[in-house]
Amino acid sequence: MTADSKEVRPTPAQKQDPPASEGAHRTVPDWLRRAAGISELWTFVILVVLVAFFTIAAPGKFFTQYDLTQIAVNAAIYLVLGVGMTFVIITAGIDLSIGSVLVLAAVAAGEYNIHHGGPDAGWGTVAICVVIALAVGAGWGVLQGAVVATGKVPPLIVTLGGLGAALGIAELATGGQDPAGAAATHLQNSLGFGKVLGIPWLVVLAAVVTAVFGLVLGATRFGTRTLAIGSNPTAVRRAGIGVGRHLVKVYGLMGLLAGLGAVMWLASYGTTSIAGHSTDNLKVITAVVLGGTSLFGGRGSVLGTVIGVFIPAVLTTGLIVIGVQQYWQDVAVGVVLVAAVYVDQMRRKTREQA
Amino acid sequence: MLSIRSRRSALVAAGTVLALTGAAACSSSDSGSGSSGGAAHKKVRLITGVKSDPFYITMTCAAKTEAKAKGMDFGADGSAQWDVSVQRPLLDSVAASRPDGLMISPVDTSALTPSLKQIQSAGTKVALVDTTVTDDSIGITRISSDNEKGGRVAADALAKLMGEKGSAIVISVKPGVSTTDARIKGFTEEMKKYPKIKMLPTLYDNDLPATAASQIQSTLAAHPDLGGVFAGNTNTGQGIATGLKQAGKEGAVKVAAFDAEPDEVASLKAGTLQVLVAQDPAAIGREAVDQLAAAFEGKSVQKSIGTNMVAITKANMNDPSVSKYFYKSGC
Questions:
Q1: ipTM value of the model?
Q2: Which candidate, B49, B45, B44, places its Cα nearest to that of B144?
Q3: Cβ–Cβ contacts within 10 Å for residue A265, how many?
Q4: pTM of the shown model
Q5: Do A321 and B210 make contact, defined as CB atoms within 8 angstroms?
Q6: CB atoms B218 and A270 under 8 Å
């Protein structure tokens, strides 16, 4: 979970200490300047303020074990998708197709399940379904990555095409209707609704994925290369690293995690929800950007994404708990997003001038 | 939203041009199939809202059977998605074939009006089924479920299961949809008859099951006495069921949902849903064919018909007079 990895910047800007907000250079103590430079800090403060506000506004209702568990469960799938998206956006790419890839993987696994036992399918079938979902997701991601790697089509367009194509194939396979019996009861009762030490398996799985890929980004060569490509692909290429090959891996990873998201979705919802994923991409990109990952690449962290996923989740739940009209939550998330990107830009500017 | 709207207006403009050229072509040759009277051999086409929706499949099947019995030449198609830009080309191609009768479930209350006007003025009799358009001059008949009554049916059935006490909430798809708004209105008004039931403000999930799941769990945190939920559609119902299961409240909180699609019937059997309010799409399809036939024969036509709604619970679902309302996924 500790993957703040913005140190890795092969550009000249790297030499600078993280700058504090303008005008604060001389008057603020050094430790505070340093702390303010951590990109996650600002969003983390927002998250803490939100939690504190709702806890005070709705005593005994918001900051409860029940409520925290439900927020975490509902955030689990977005968290897994957000981890993959963090890698993609750090390379200065984007993946709009994740919702459709999730549906396609879920449909592929679901169709296999329907023809091999349906809801009463055994553990063997469940295992094969999981493999199918992961393989379909990863395969689709690798395909998109390969096209991106040619450098001829921007990632926005590649994955926009993928968004339509993956959903179309899923609709062709099912006739546009969610098939019944797509998830086995075994899968639902274990991963979907099962708990270990009071913590739902969905949350445990999401936490493990987050921790593993947080470490991958922060402490491995794979992570370093991802950050380097986002900062300066030409320099990376001249250093003799295969940028294209690395992009294929990054988009493949995104697809793999979308496949995992499909497994988690089937487990908890028991259906493929073909029409229910049209805005997954926007939700996940919002979370990643909220978490301080730069849309221009080269900077970002998995920890930030974790915070970015939880801000909208806390807002949604909190506003319902205190009984505020729901349209406010869209307004609130929108304002926070724009503000976060604005701050991101200001920080970049001061960094480049320094 | 803005971009969608501007794209839509562009499409409307393009569609209008198409419709105008189509109409010009029509008026130049007024052969038609003559007004020789009688419904037999009349060419009737049905365009549904979403082709793969069991509601529309059931409607199509019933209309087909009825049309065959009357000796009509019947054909049906539907848009792949609930989208004006998808339905309009279908409508234009059907218009080009100059049918005697057209049954359509328009997916927008105004964007299809120009096309429909052209078709109507070219001599095709139009019947609006399920959904309608705001322009009153379109359609010789409008047949749909009485959605407000459906909401009331749902409220009564749910209140009974709740023991007529506790909090209740509506989670629907989005505001501004005529059918679901009418259902919510009927539901909320009927619930006022139960003084011990408290209605919470309506939530909207934008057709996303994950949002519905989180909303129902948050509502439970704020209102532990929550006893009943009215789900706007299938996706919402699935989300609510998952949310309740995660919270360990499955069965304790009663869920009412609209329609009786195969997977909803399965949920009713499994106990994740407690009430289904079924519309009667088969009756809508049959009535539309009958009204068109009456129009062809020069008989009087009913301008507006509201079809029946029925509440299905686990207790009555095996009764053949109730189970006939289950929607079909194929003829």
A1: 0.73
A2: B49
A3: 31
A4: 0.75
A5: no
A6: no
